[in-house]
Design goal:
By secondary structure, the protein is of the alpha+beta class. 32% of the residues lie in helices and 30% in strands. The strands form 4 sheets. Strands 10, 11, 12, 13, 14, 15, 16 and 17 form an 8-stranded mixed β-sheet that branches. A 4-stranded antiparallel β-sheet has the order 4-3-6-7.
């Protein structure tokens, strides 16, 4: 899969192909950024990636000259929306890369990316970004309120991702079962539609997105599997969320002057909450 990001960069992602994908003779095991002139190989097919960089031309708007790159960014990211952002990262990925064959690694991670995309699509969203051994997904909410079923759908996606990841060692000869960590945050962000009318492709920028990445990173520090932002957790109180499932923690996070509150737990806690909410 080739994915164009909002900054104009292209990523090549191998989704578990048997023969592999190669960039300049090196097999792709995680998403890689393509450069103009890169040699791509898929099986017996060889291609050349061409994406020449052009100098931006000034734009004239009502007699005012604007930089075209700034104008494009403004056009793409111009609507403030209430969203939930999920960031999921594979645990101990670097350790695993040292212990298994490159072909097995590529097929394993490619299969994980493909199945993760299917799970997220089944739960009402899409993979917005592939980042090394991590993915980011975005859910768009209504203007003022998050309906409880929306948040349940997101948590069900996280649970399904955790179970899928934990079963990959049954298909591939891995040195240990894979695990993931997840960060989930809800708030306002600037979003824009960069896709077609039939397949809208939203991307989001802002502190809500940044905090989701910080929450995911904090799960390692806290020794848990999933960390929720306060707004996310508040939307779950209507479904009887409490410290039995997600314990309140205070974090000192990079880039934030004041401590940040999160509500964190294990995937077992998450599954118990989902079971409890279904019976309520």
């Amino acid at each position: 899969m080739l994915q164009c990001m909002e900054n104009g960069e292209f990523y090549l992602i191998d989704l578990g192909s048997r023969n592999g994908s190669f960039v300049n003779g090196r097999r792709v095991s995680v998403p890689v950024t393509l450069q103009n002139g890169d040699a791509l190989t898929f099986g017996q097919t060889e291609l050349r990636f061409s994406c020449p960089i052009e100098e931006p031309k000034p734009l004239e708007v009502s007699g005012v000259t604007l930089d075209s790159q700034d104008h494009t960014a403004t056009a793409m990211l111009h609507v403030r929306r209430l969203i939930s952002v999920m960031v999921v990262d594979i645990r101990d990925f670097t350790v695993m890369t040292r212990q298994i064959d490159e072909k097995v690694l590529s097929e394993t991670i490619g299969t994980w990316f493909r199945r993760a995309g299917e799970i997220i699509a089944d739960h009402g969203s899409w993979v917005d970004k592939y980042i090394g051994d991590a993915i980011m997904a975005v859910w768009i909410h209504g203007a003022q309120r998050i309906e409880p079923p929306e948040m349940i759908q997101i948590l069900e996606a996280v649970s399904a991702l955790a179970h899928m990841t934990g079963q990959l060692h049954e298909q591939f000869p891995l040195p240990f079962p894979l695990r993931i960590g997840a960060g989930l945050n809800t708030g306002y962000a600037m979003v824009g539609n960069t896709g077609s009318g039939a397949h809208p492709d939203y991307t989001a920028l802002g502190d809500t997105v940044n905090a989701a990445f910080r929450f995911e990173s904090s799960t390692k520090q806290l020794g848990v599997d999933i960390a929720l932002g306060e707004t996310t957790y508040a939307s779950l109180r209507e479904l009887s969320a409490n410290d039995r499932f997600f314990k309140r923690q205070t974090l000192s996070m990079k880039g934030y002057e004041q401590p940040i509150v999160t509500h964190a737990g294990t995937f077992r806690d998450l599954d118990e909450f989902l079971k409890s909410s279904a019976q309520a």
